[in-house]
Amino acid sequence: MTKDLINTAATKERAILVGVGIKGEHRNWSIEGSLDELQQLAKTAGAEVVGRMVQNLEKPSQSHYLGSGKLEELLSLKDELKYDTAIFNDELRPTQQENLETALEVKVIDRTALILDIFARSACTSEGKLQVELAQHEYMLPRLAGQWSHLERLGGGIGTRGPGESQIETDRRLIRNRITSIKKQIEAVRKHRELYRRKREQSGTPLVALVGYTNAGKSTLLNTLCHAGVLAENKLFSTLDPVTKRLRLPDGRNILVTDTVGFIHKLPPLIVAAFHATLEELDEADLLLHVVDITSPDAVNQSQTVEKILTQLKLGEKPRITVINKMDQVVESIEEAQNISLDVKSPAQATVITSALKNWNLDKLQEKIGEYLEISKLGGREGTG
């Protein structure tokens, strides 16, 4: 007798996207453009987006993020769209999330939780996983009141619960303990990086760091320049863990090139804090290469977002070269690209048009790197390494 086969493959969550546009607020990003990016994030996380909703308000509702009328409309769409997850375009307060879940009776997640989920999928090294876990715990701690029953038990047993201590208090204590432990481990990583940096400084080898919006092509550029073999995928946050490779410039000098996590609009502060040890690489760099995806309709906004985050990290004055990338998707040859007028402004020492995928103009990029290092007298010794 044959048995019916049961399909155990995980079905995609059906998600509706929800965003609030602030009336009278002058923003570079339109609410629709921001939701387009949220949709990319949702797809990267494995969700099927079945709809979206936008409301223009003076400010989001303190209790439910949306106004009462839009909340009723959102609830009424459940039967039509059959969504089981609602993804909100801003970080929700714990009370907002709890109220929304009660009203909608579906899973409610915000932009921060969505990004953290993608980070958790992308982290490969022990360091990357620690940084993501720290950010997740920091995010979860103030939200335990409505979610403690869904948490995986982190520990417990005899001697772990105080007199009259509730389950939520136990969970808070366990998570705080775990946060303390993770921070100690990340501090050990930071000290190891510090030793590495001192060794590099003693060798006189300059460090050039790649920065840019997520999916701008930084990993592809590192692969082409340094034959790095780094995973480069056409999706958001395919690279979380920093990778450093050696590059020999045409003039014979050796430099180190490091790839770092991409930035994004509304990058949650707790993620910046959790990845502080990694982002220290940017502070130590002698030169930044700001990689811009010229094919993105939001290229200007993305470039400005990166510059804003660099300023927040106190790196606004760091010397940089703007790399206008993916030009092969715009024109058929690099010669055609030279005649294109670009509107991506940046406080850079130079701008170079490239295609990292097709190796267009990377010789010129290396020349510009060498010129800057020569001027700043940061060039490494010829033949080092």
Quick summary of this structure?
The chain has 13 helices and ten strands.
Structure description:
The protein is of the alpha/beta class and 385 residues long. The protein has 3 domains: 14-116, 3-Layer(aba) Sandwich (Rossmann fold), CATH 3.40.50.11060; 123-149 and 166-203; 204-375, Rossmann fold (3-Layer(aba) Sandwich), CATH 3.40.50. 42% of the residues lie in helices and 16% in strands. The strands form 2 sheets. It has a 6-stranded mixed β-sheet with strand order 6-7-5-8-9-10, sandwiched between helices. The protein has a 4-stranded parallel β-sheet with strand order 2-1-3-4, with helices on both faces. The longest helix has 37 residues, at 167-203. The N and C termini lie far apart (69 Å). The relative contact order is 0.10. Mean pLDDT is 84; it is low at 1-9, 148-163 and 378-385.
